[in-house]
Amino acid sequence: MRSSLIKPGVLLAAIFMLVSNAFAQKDQSGADPAFLHNLATEWQAHWIQIGYPEDSLNHPSQYFSKQFNSLGKVKQARLFITSRGLYEAQINGKRVGNAYLTPGWTSYNKRIAYQAWDVTDLVKKGDNILQVTLGDGWYRGALAFENRRNYFGTKLSLICQLELTYTNGHKEIISSDDSWKSGEGPIRQSSINNGETIDHNRLLQVDKPVKIVDDYAGKLVPTESYPATKHEVFKPINVMTTPKGEKVLDFGQNLVGWVMLKVKGKQGDTITIQHAEVLDKAGNFYIANLRGAQATSTYILKGQGEEFFEPHFTYFGFRYIQIKGLRADPDPEDFTAVAVYADMQPSGTFECSNPMLNKLQHNIQWGQKGNFLYVPTDCPQRDERLGWTGDAQVFARTAAYNFDVQYFFKQWMVDVALDQRKDGAVTFVVPDILDGAAGSAGWGDVSTVVPWTMYQVYGDKEILQQQYESMKKWVGFMTQNSTNDLWNKGDHFGDWLSYHSPTDDGSDAITDKYEIAQCFYAYSTQLVINAARVLGKTEDVNYYSALLNRIKDAYRKEYTTYSGRILSNTQSSYVLALQFDMLLEKDRPTAASYLVSKIRAYDHHLTTGFLGTPYLCHVLSRFGHTKEAYRLLLQDTYPSWLYPIKMGATTIWERWDGIKPDGSFQTTAMNSFNHYAYGAIGDWMYQHIAGIQAGSPGYQQVIIRPDLGGGLTWCKASYICPQGKIIVSWKIADGKFTLDATIPKGSTAVVYLPNAEGKNIQQKNIPAGNYHFSN
Ligand code: RAM
What we know:
This protein is of the alpha+beta class. The chain folds into 4 domains: 16-23 and 700-774, Maltose phosphorylase, domain 3 (Sandwich); 48-224, Jelly Rolls, CATH 2.60.120.260; 230-342, Galactose-binding domain-like (Jelly Rolls, Sandwich), CATH 2.60.120; 368-622 and 668-677, Glycosyltransferase (Alpha/alpha barrel). It is built from 16 helices and 39 strands. The strands form 9 sheets. Strands 12, 13, 17, 18, 19, 20, 23, 24, 25 and 26 form a 10-stranded mixed β-sheet that branches. Strands 1, 4, 7, 9, 10 and 16 form a 6-stranded mixed β-sheet that branches. Strands 6-5-8-3-11-14 form a 6-stranded antiparallel β-sheet. The radius of gyration is 27 Å and the shape is globular. The chain binds alpha-L-rhamnopyranose.
């Protein structure tokens, strides 16, 4: 039986026992956050480092070991462990736990998560050996742009303590200290961007001293997020030789993880596996879009029978691999790709009568799987892979439909607040590795949008409490950078990657960056008001409500015309103004019709970038233009959601035209094929096609309101809300609309049935149960 991660509640009790003397007065069940966060001071263990001169060029993995004798029968064994760098632990040669790339990625210098593993089954009576391997990982390995090294520190270190409880009640703690040994072994180098080298000829040699380095100034906190674990496995669907003569295997899905390899060969044979997302027009292996990331596994064989390899301290975003160094043609049986991502529970399903939309849903989910690995990353493959705040903000609502992401975001938001600058600016990426670069509209708003979205979805007020100061600080930053309530300073990313015309016909859809900034200034202020209401902070409600009025007034004076146009006159200008209620009520329908005319002007194509796209179809639906929303959704020429699918995409692309119609690529400088941001349409599909909406925070009231259109004849979807599973299934047959719905216990529902004329028949306060409606 394998060791398992102790979940936060249990973990608390376990830690409680560990430090019970110091905290004898505390109640085990009370999850007092201060108690959790102060634990670091109670560790008995020391931080330890290797005690020999390091090969500072190659950075081979560091191995630590401790032999211990267990005196009696062990009733319970728990390993508390974390590291600066990534760790993998083994007891008596068996791997501890099912998580990879532990301890995950946080703003390491401020806090590091530790894990508590139940290892009772791994410890035996008598002699035992606890061994831990460290890799550079995010802590000091080649990371992000230009393979920057040593971002968080220059030295790896380990802290762990193994708590043994014997059947006779006696307790013993084995801690990391100067009795441990250190040394080297088969992993010769590893980094997030570049991959890993394993040499099976290098025996484990762990006989050198260690050094105690109790210099960690941050906090050790228990893991409350979802660890990265192995999920789906894939066998190659095709083994080919490309026109250039490369041996390439295709796994059929752009995924994130690695390849497990079985191989036979001679001693010293060197096998390399390089990873790629796409093949080029000619069918050759294409890696230029990975920029500086080598993304290569290198394996050196011992040459004695069948050998097994997989990397430990890296990951790749790929669909294809190129293999070199085999003595024979690759046998597909020897290769297994495994998807590695956050162990979050699936929460939503969506299926309808249009196969292209089903494929879109598949791609959205795979975009999420590939980029939810401890932090929400922009992309998983090139020399970047960062927690870009804008991307996370636009995708959060969709993410929560597909998977339970409550603790994933709740934990990451702690780092958002920790990395937030003193002046309130929210960093572009979290954990921040860009030296405090911060303050872009639409990116910094992650600080308000994500807590509010999570509250809407899970009804959990705690995240609002946790983030409230950070939310206010962000609005304070915008206020401070405003003149007469206009936020018109600083550098912004704007409506990132919006439409640029392939010909110089002047049709680029550029939205003024300060016009956008003003919309987000208003939106974040609104969300602070909402949070203040929930938390009962009346003074704040008053202060921010007055501010919001001034922000909107200033917007209307600066950016709108007498006839109701908006300065930049792009789809995104109208979308943001309408979504965030920037215009007077009477002027909104006119603005919505300008939006529609802007869509028609591009022959029913969207022109929005990262910031406009998530709200585009929502705004169309809200103002009675659902038909136009469906038309956009079903568009399959550039720019559109379905165009990449026509071009063979299995994930969401960074750009609307990552691969152009003639098969050529967009710029190598920025062309990821696994970027979830544009997948934010998923939210509209659940809310408007399936019709599953939250009528109140945490779905105590469910709204079921499908909007028919796009020639769809059926849709089946489900969503696990905090009360249980909501199921909606509707169809149109013989001119008749029928809907089946399941409402979970603890929720009531309002169901709207669309009829042929587009009028709605409403059924209110429907209690839990299964229902059949027809119209
Ligand atoms: C790119 C990232 C990300 C985006 C920023 C502005 O490099 O991939 O998606 O948020 O830039």
